[in-house]
Amino acid sequence: MPEGALEIDRVSKRYGDVVALDEMSLTVHGGEMLGFVGSNGAGKTTTMRIALGVLAADSGEVRYDGAPVDRTTRSRIGYMPEERGLYPKMKVSEQLQYLGELHGLPRADAVRSANRWTERLGLAERREDQLQKLSLGNQQRVQLAAALVHDPSVLILDEPFSGLDPVAVEVMSTVLREMRDQGVPVVFSSHQLELVQRLCDRVGIVRRGSMVADGTVEELRSSGPTRLTVHAPEAPADWAEGLPGVTVESRENGRTALRLDDTADDQRVLRAALATGPVHEFSRERPSLTELFRDVVTEETDE
Amino acid sequence: MKPTLHTVWLVARRELRARVRTRAFLLGTLFMALLVLALPVVMSFAISSAGDDGSGPLTPSEETTRIGVTPSAAGLTGPLERDAGVDEPAIAVREVADTETGKTLVHEGELDGVVAGTPTAPKLFVEQHVFPHLERALTTITYNNQLDAEMSESGLEPEAVRDRAGQGEVAIISMGSSPDAAGEPMAGTPGAEKAQRLFIAMISTFLLYMFLIMTGQMIAQGVVEEKSSRVVEVLLSTIRSTELMAGKIVGIGLTGLIQLAVLGIVGLGAATGAAVLTLPTFTVAGLLGWAALWFLLGFTLYATMLAAASSLVSRQEDLQSVITPVIMLLIVPFVVGVSVLPNNPDGTVGTVLSMIPGFSPMLMPMRLALGGVPLWQGVLSVLLSLAASAVVLWLGGRIYSNAVLRTGARVRFKDALRAS
C-alpha cells in the first residue's frame, strides 16, 4: 500500500547574496528511505525546513501526492530538527500529547499515541519526568516520539542518528524501517555514511545547494570512478605511468592502487602489468559511499 | 482542518498550565495575598493621615457614658447631650436627687460619673476612669456659659453676638478642576472618600505596573526559552508563527489576570472586612472592572512588543538588552503617573498623556479611580489604545515571524522587519 511521494521540485532560496539552494530537486516515494548527504552548509537543513514550510522558498514547489503541500498536508509530516527542540521543563507525556494535539489529533487519540510511542521506545518509566531529567539518549528518543506521535504520512529527519549510542541507533533504525514498510516516504540527513549505505534505498548527495548525485546505493557506486588494485611484485615504480585515463594513487610492497576514469581501458592496464612479470592480484573495487562522498567534497574544494 | 482559534487555545492552555502549576506561582500568589491582607492596616494609616475631615485618630467606639446631673447643675444637661463629638462615645444624662445619691450610684457602677456644682463651675465625680471626651465637653460648655455670663454682664446679648460671629466664612476654591470636567469632581467629594479613591488609584496603578512588568518578563523569557531550546522549529512545522505568538500572549495574559483577580478579591474582602473601605460596592466594582480592562489593553500592547523584541535574540543572557527599551516604555508612564496625577488629576498634562497609547494603561486607570473623567475621554483612550495594539500586533507579528527561527547572533531590528 504505497502512499504518495514527497517531491521537492527546483526549489531555490537566497539569503541576501548567499545562495542557499539552487534549483534543488528530490523525490522520495512512498515506502522508500532516502539518505540525504552532503557537507555542512550544503543546503540539507534548508531543504528540509522548506519542505516543512518552516521556511519559505524563493521559487520552486514542494508537493505531496501530486499536490502542493499546504497547511493540512504539512500537519501530516513528522519532523525531527537537527538541533533537538522540546520544552526542557515539561513532562514527557504532556509534551507528546501537546504536539499530537497541535498536529490535529483529538485529545484522547493524542494521549493514546503518546503512551504507545513511549512504550515502544522504552520510555514508559520516564513518562512523568521532566525532559531535562532524562539522559541525552533518552531525550533523543522523546524527540523521535515527537516526530511520530501524530502518525505521520511523511517523515523528515535532520541528523536523527547524531549523538546516539549503538543501542539507540538500532532502535531508531528499526522504527524508521517499520515506517518505510508501512508505505511512508522517509528522508533523513546524516554524516554517518556507512549507516546511510546500510539503511537507505536511495541516496542523494547535495553540494552547494543542488543535488549532484541521486540514485540507489548500487547505481551510485557503479557510476563512480573505478579503482584497481594490482599486485605485480617485479614491476618497476613507473610501470603504470603514461597509460591513458589512469592515475596512480599509491604504491606499496609491489601493490599499486590505480584510479581509472571513463576513458581508461582496464584490459590495457592488465596487459601492461603482465608485461612486467607475474601478476598475483588484479581486483576491481567499487567505491564505498564514503569515497563517493569524498570525491564530491574534493571537487568542491578544487573549484 | 485545524482552526486557528483552536490552535491558539492549545498554545494558551499549555502556557497557562506550565505556569500556574509551578511552585513559584503558587508561593508567589500566596505571598502577594498576604501582602494584600496587610493592606487595610496601611490603608487606614494612609487615609487618616490624608483625610482632612478633622476626625482625628479613630478611637474605638465604647459604650455610652452614663452621667448623673444634680439639680444645681441641670443647665448642663442639654449641652452635654448635644455636644458629644460625632466619633466619640455618646453621653446619656439623667437627673439625680443630690450629689451623695449620685456618688453612691457611681460606686455601685450604675453611673460613670456625676456632675454637681453650677453650670459655670461644675464638679465632676468619677470612680477611677478618666473620660477625656466628657472632660472636653464639660470644659467647652463651661467656657461658653462663662462667656455668655460675662457678655450679659457687659450689656451684650449673647445670642446676637454669636449670630454675628457665625457670619464669618471660609471660601474654598478648588484650583484643579478644568472648566469642562463633568462627572464627579474631586472638589466635591468629602475627604474620606477622596482619600479612599486616591488609595485605590495608587494601589491599582501599582498592581497594574507590577503585573505588566511580571507578565512581560514571562513573555520575554518564554519566547527566548522556545528559541534557545529550538522547540520553536518543531512547533512552527505544524502551526503558524502568529498562532504561536497569539497563544503565548493569551496564555500568559490569563495567568496574570487570574493572579490579579485573586489578589483583587482578597484585598477588597480584607478592606471591606476591616471597614476601611466605605465606598459603595458598585463604585469599587466599577473601578476594578476598569483596572482589569486596562490590564488587558496594556498587556496586549506591551506583551506584543516584548515578544517581538525577545524573538531577536537566542539566549537569555542577551535578553536584557533588547527588552530594556520596551520596559522603559512601561516605567516612564508609571513614574509620571504616580508623581503628576494624584495632585492634579485633571491638569492638561495628565489629561493629554492619559489618552496617549503607552501612557494610557498607567494613567487612565488612575484618573478613573480618582474620579471626574468625562466619558468621552475614557472611551477615546480605549479606542486609541486598541488602534495602537492593532498596529503593534501587525508589526510585532511580522518581526516575530521573521526573527524567531534565526538562531545565533542577535537579529537586527531592520532585518527582522524587512526579510521574509
UniProtKB/TrEMBL annotation, chain A:
GO terms for biological process: response to antibiotic. It is a peripheral membrane protein. One of its GO terms (cellular component) is plasma membrane. It is found in: Cell membrane. GO terms for molecular function: ATP binding; ATP hydrolysis activity. SUPFAM superfamilies: P-loop containing nucleoside triphosphate hydrolases. Residues 6-233 form the ABC transporter domain. PROSITE patterns: ABC_TRANSPORTER_1, ABC_TRANSPORTER_2. InterPro entries: AAA+_ATPase, ABC_transporter-like_ATP-bd, ABC_transporter-like_CS, ABC_transporter_ATP-binding, DrrA1/2-like_C, P-loop_NTPase. Keywords: Antibiotic resistance, ATP-binding, Nucleotide-binding, Transport. Belongs to the ABC transporter superfamily. This is ABC-2 type transport system ATP-binding protein. It comes from Actinopolyspora xinjiangensis.
Automatic annotation (TrEMBL), chain B:
Keywords: Membrane, Transmembrane, Transmembrane helix. GO terms for cellular component: membrane. The keyword Calcium does not apply. It is a multi-pass membrane protein. Residues 31-395 form the ABC-2 type transporter transmembrane domain. Pfam families: ABC2_membrane_3. The chain crosses the membrane at residues 24-47, 198-220, 249-275, 287-309, 321-341, 375-396. GO terms for molecular function: ABC-type transporter activity. It is found in: Membrane. Residues 52-84 are annotated as: Disordered. Signal peptide: none annotated. InterPro entries: ABC2_TM. This is ABC-2 type transport system permease protein. It comes from Actinopolyspora xinjiangensis. The lineage of its organism: Bacteria, Bacillati, Actinomycetota, Actinomycetes, Actinopolysporales.
